[in-house]
Amino acid sequence: MGKNEKVLQNKDIVIIVMGPTGAGKSTFINSVLQREFMTVGKTQDSCTSEIQSASISPIPGFPDLKDRRIIIVDTPGFDDTYKSDREILEKIAKWLEGFYKDGRAILGGVIYVHDLSNDRFGGGVRRNLEVFRKMCGNKALGKVVITTTKGRKLSMLKHPNNSSLAHERRRELTDGHWRDLVKNGASVRDFRDTHDSAWAIVDSILSRLRLTNLIDIYMQIQKELVDEGKGIPETEAGKELRNTLKDALKMQGQLETASAADGNEAALQEAENTIERLLSQIHELKIPFSLKMKRLFGFRNR
Fold first, then answer.
1. Which residues sit opposite 114 in a β-bridge?
2. Domain regions of the chain by residue span
3. Which residue from 114, 128, 252, 279 could staple onto 20, CB 3.0 to 4.6 Å apart?
4. Four-residue CA torsion sign, 16, 200, 214, 10
């Protein structure tokens, strides 16, 4: 196994791991690899601001894939500690664009990691899922595995209906926030902090890939950037991120007004700083008028 694979090889199978900061992406990957390859954070601060990858070869349990490698890719969340959401989208999009353009590897699957112990579904968690949904598009959802983490403690707690709290929270998410993804082909599986449970998820991706016609399916944002010649702000993911940042801006505006009324100078200053950062990102994700006119007359990015 190697870390931070820079060059994809012919027939490589790429598995991308995405999700919010602190959800357990790096822990999951380390469990797959059975080594501490990725730095794991002990707080909600991000430890993955760059895209990192590791290779697995030979692939256990798949003798017919003996001439292939798995490239498992760790990505930063859209609520990164050190980089803006716009920077994170650009970083991931550029990597996906390069991988698709290269043409030697295939997209095996996408693992979306969700922290089951997080009982709130707002802010960064919602933004991560909504932008992820637009990055994938409907066709690629058959390659998506929503992976729950940190459910062991919840499994020991009882819900009022006498089932485990972990089971109920998973059911609520599957019937609610994840319903559209599951309806369009995504599956939901649990990671239980063991190599076996982590590998079972990878195994399910490889097995499904081999038994279906998904092998030539890629993420929507890859096709938008390469086949359609769009810029990042023009992609569905770029437009979705801009809309979610506008929603966050409205909330910060309300917070700014409340802080000013209360005379809370510290909170007011923090709200003003956040508003400034949000406005900057929204501006950077705006599609220039000149580009809109080019699109109107059929011009593409080169």
1. 148
2. 12-223, 229-296
3. 128
4. positive
Which of 36-40, 45-49, 145-149 is the least confident region? Answer: 45-49
Render pLDDT for 207-260 as a digit per residue (tens, 0 to 9).
Answer: 998 877 888 999 999 999 999 999 999 999 999 999 999 988 988 888 888 888
Q: Where are the alpha helices (DSSP H) in the chain?
A: 25-33, 85-102, 123-136, 152-155, 165-175, 179-183, 195-211, 220-226, 236-262, 265-284, 289-296
- Residue 255: the pLDDT is 80
CA distance linking residue 75 with residue 29, whole number of Å? 11
Residue 74's φ and ψ, nearest 5 degrees, are: -100, 130
Q: Please give the Cα distance from 187 to 143 (Å, whole number).
A: 8
Using only C-alpha atoms, the chain has a radius of gyration, in whole angstroms, of 20
Of 255, 301, 259, 260, the closest CA to residue 278 belongs to: 255
Q: Is this model's pTM higher than 0.85 or not?
A: yes
Quick: pLDDT tens for 115-143: 998 888 877 899 999 999 999 999 999 99
Burial 205-229 (b: 16+ CB within 10 A, else e): bbebbeeeebeebbbbbbbbbbeee
Residue with the two structure tokens 């508003």: 275
User: What whole-number distance in Å separates Cα of residue 268 and Cα of residue 256?
Assistant: 5
Determine the length of the chain: 302
**CATH code linked to domain 12-223:** 3.40.50.300
CA–CA dist 174, 147 (Å, integer)? 11
Measured distance CA(249)–CA(104) in Å, rounded? 41
